[in-house]
Fold:
Amino acid sequence: MAKRKSFLNEFLRLKKVGGIYAKDRSKGFRYLHNTITKRLAEGCEFKIGDLDFSRFTEDDLSEYMRYYERHLEPMAEEGAVLFSQISYDTVSFPMRKQYRGVA
Amino acid sequence: MIPLLKYEITSLFWYISKLKAVYKQGGREAVKCFRNFGADTEEYEINCLDKLENLPECTEHEYLREEFEDSNEIGDICGEKWIFESEDMCEYYRLLQDLSQRKLITDDEYRFFDSEMTDYILHALVNKQYNDGGFHCHLDDGTMPDGYCHIEIYNYHDGSFGAFDAVCGIVAVFERYKERLKFLEEEFTVKDETEVK
Structure:
């Protein structure tokens, strides 16, 4: 039986992108991923005040921005289409059918 | 997952990179100033226009109207103007002039400290804006007869104006005045007291 994949887990797990393995990513890179992307993906709120600017460098940030644009943004766009389709379908086909008696 | 899909996350990173650059240059207060800003960046610029007016250093905000040479007709609003000042800023220039007059600093040192802040204003505030006529900045360092010390910034609506960059710049500039004043006081006032003894 095929193993079921979670979209959220796939999204949040750091992958090899641009020839760089996940294990080789810097602490600052991981900090940005966990503090911003992970938090938002898990449905939590994010405020600029949640970020400790001393915990990442400008290089970490630009590396993470490249990673997000190349790997996560296309996934997020697909996810947005999927979620909007689900919410559209939910409106078109109500989950619970209702029957009313005819007088 | 929904918040992440709803917001422009690349835009959020872009703003964070601007804040990181300010933080690196010592603008810790500028970063604190945005602590309540969330992941939705759509309202950032509009919120920053309000923020400019509500900064503690802002003493005046007014709308500018078109002026006509041949008539007294009231024109349409064509821009905005903010005036910023602080005690630290005025004290910085007053102390600098005082130290120079009392020969506690050389003319070269005076020019260095004076231009240091002008360069910082250019770097942190003016050069962050598009150069299309939408932004204008004027510094009055108290050397004019009225002794009035302030920074004026203008937003002309026919050009671009980055309100986020303006808030970052203004907060960072006044933070720098505070730091440099402290430095001048520690470096030269102590030197002065030692010489008196």
Remarks:
- The longest helix of chain A spans residues 58-92.
- Residues 10-91 of chain A form one domain.
- Chain A has a mean pLDDT of 82.
- Helices of chain A lie at 7-12, 27-41, 58-92.
